[in-house]
Amino acid sequence: MMKKLIAGNWKMNGSLAANDKLLKDILAGLGQQASCQIAVGVPAVYLAQCQALLAGTKIDLASQDISTHEVGAYTGEISGAMLMDFGVRYAIVGHSERRQYHGETDEVVALKAQRALGCGITPIVCVGETLAEREAGQTDEVVKRQLAAVIHANGHCISEVVVAYEPVWAIGTGKTATPEMAQQVHAVLRAQLKAASEHADRIKLLYGGSMNAANAASLLAQPDIDGGLIGGAALKAQDFLTIIAATA
Ligand code: 13P
Fold this sequence. Notes:
Elements (H helix, E strand, L loop, with lengths): L4 E5 L6 H15 L6 E5 L5 H8 L4 E5 L16 H6 L2 E6 L2 H6 L4 H13 L3 E6 L3 H5 L3 H16 L7 E4 L13 H18 L8 E4 L7 H5 L6 E4 L6 H9 L3
Parallel strand pairs: 1-2, 1-8, 2-3, 3-4, 4-5, 5-6, 6-7, 7-8
Helix pairs in contact: 1-2, 1-10, 5-7, 7-8
């Protein structure tokens, strides 16, 4: 069976001191038994610090973004090659906060996924509907459109991506999709991936949006939920460890 993936997305949180304590507490609590794959998505300025803290451990490093460009005059951007210099294994792309606050379109997100794959980084592609879209009955249509752009741009490499379904209305709100609601959308995404790739069964589909220590087990028990992308609860060592333990 495929190993689940629990990925933290720290967003714009942390400090040298806080990161040091958080990662040391998680590593101490993890011990030998990690039944799943684990990653933390840290702010770019802390990649070097976290790379050093995580060297030789079971926790992989993720970035929260990647440039669409490879090199050159793009002030403020960070390329895939630069991320590789710091041992980054995953890049979160198309998070709803980047779509919403930085105008990232489906095409930009698809190109970012392509750039990541091009340098051997696994993109964690985020899709998800807003509350208005859900209420208008457009959930399936929206997530399929978002994923279709990534499939179109990446051809057979699509089997190498991780997809995260994050309903926008569930992010940071304490409102979680019920396991049944999440499973329903995951099944839609799995079917779309199956039509695009004969290896769709090995593509991890994560759920994100107010996943926490209390609700993780029931979400992770769904047949098409292969892990979680965790915001707030990834900033608390004990909560993150409980979510990791819920994959067992
Ligand atoms: P929360 O877990 O804080 O709702 O955030 C989810 C998320 O956006 C992870 O990328």
